[in-house]
Amino acid sequence: MKIVTAEQMRRIEDRSEAQGVSKDTLMEHAGLSVARYIRRQFSPLVGVPVPVLVGPGNNGGDGLVVARHLHRWGARVNVYICRDRRAPDANLNIVRDMGIPVITASSDAGLERLSALLGEAHVLVDAVLGIGRLRPIEGIMRDILLLLARTKASSPDMKILAIDVPSGMDADSGDADPACPAADITLSMGYPKVGHYAYGAASRVGALDVVDIGLPDGIDDDVPLSLMTPDGMRPLLPLRPSDAHKGSFGKALVVAGSLNYIGAAYLSATAATRVGSGLVTLALPASIQMAVASKAIEPTYLPLAESSPGVALPTAANDVLDALDDYDSLLLGCGMGQAADMRRFMAAVMYAGKRLPPAVIDADGLNTLASTRRRWERFSAAAILTPHPGEMARLTGKSAGAVQADRIGIATESAARWNKIVVLKGAHTVVALPDGNAMLSPFTNPGLATAGTGDVLAGSIAGLLSQGVSPEHAAPLGVYLHGLAGERVRDRLGDTGMVASDLLPELPLAVRALREGNCG
């Protein structure tokens, strides 16, 4: 499913009109789809008070169509015109002809009639401001939206359903005017908008859903951003033929761990096995091998010579490079620390000039890259980078706040500039490809905001690479399976107290659920 900016949406509507589907027709489809959604979610509607707050633009036009259908199905609809609409207004005329009460803010002294409507509302439709350019909200419009927010705070059972975006939220950046009311449900017309997935927007958007508005097929082919969906991810799963043997599913070399981060080695290597890699070898400092092996019994091991306990000798990179010819994927960096010799070791692997198998660079591998001058000249291998916002800040020279403020833009720009696949972790993880295309994870799970979950993600991607999944497919598929496993753990345990190892037994169940079409 594509995710669009406001300008892209306008171009798509123009193309639709050129193909014979007018904007008026799209509005009719949109309003009917929203009304049907409300009927499904809030039935029975007969006699239920439903105020529809209508603004001056197309978003308000959608709201007027919604009002007509809800009235026809027996809801007690009142239309409240927040700002006078341009005449002639066919949709408003139809509403009046149907006998639906229409109140205008310009004739509502002190907003007393609006206050009364809000006081009895069961569900309210916010069709005030849509995806047009965000301007400061002032005057009567501001007073209306602030009254709505106050009423919601005192009457939490009233549900606010926003059409496209909560009024006052920017559809591209997710920024919001102080008067923007938080919605319980946002129904996006045709496509989700980029701003819905911005950092911090979830609390304003509420539950997000997308409704069909009747756009022609193939009209969005030039949109580079999409949302990961089960239907899109399922074909990327590697095949599992019944006559397979362990060699059929590839070999992953995981280079991870140090004295202080033993768990990272266990989590990343085990994740690679749990997504189906045929053989995983864990290369780690020799002194921590027994501690890790007591927990991770499936991998084979490549002990690395040390300069001090838990710190690999830089020359041990030669053992890794020699072994790589026998492996189908490489993961480097999880929990390796930033001791000087460990940084030299990681640099020796990455900058040796040897052709690497498909690689995932995570955690301290990324920090080593960030501290290297001319890093992209020296590390020219095709690779998947998996930074969290702090690591992305170090790689780009920006602040973590700047990264979070423009996650999609920075990830996409960086992937193109570095010629690497970038997986920017966090709520709605971004997977950006060097060709300018990008995908967003649908998952936001605070339970994943805990140490070690990134190691599980990196191992999952490396395990998929080892099975022959291409890097541009392994990155989003690994992200999706990791997020789906997290959802399964949250359903079972809740999102408090979830730990990274809880994800490991859920990964094969997530693969099965995706394969069988049972993703919830």
Give a short overview:
The protein is of the alpha/beta class. The protein is about 40% helix and about 15% strand.
What's the layout of helices and strands?
Elements (H helix, E strand, L loop, with lengths): L5 H13 L4 H20 L6 E6 L3 H15 L3 E6 L8 H8 L4 E3 L7 H9 L2 E5 L11 H16 L4 E5 L21 E5 L12 H4 L1 E5 L13 E3 L2 H4 L17 E5 L6 H13 L4 E7 L3 H5 L6 E5 L1 E3 L2 E2 L4 H7 L5 E4 L7 H11 L8 E3 L2 H7 L4 H4 L4 E3 L3 H8 L3 H6 L1 H12 L2 E4 L5 E3 L5 E3 L12 H14 L4 H23 L12 H11 L4
Parallel strand pairs: 1-2, 1-4, 2-3, 4-5, 5-6, 6-7, 8-19, 9-10, 9-14, 10-11, 14-15, 15-16, 16-17
Antiparallel strand pairs: 12-13, 17-18, 18-19
Helix pairs in contact: 2-3, 3-4, 5-6, 9-18, 11-12, 12-13, 13-15, 18-19, 19-20
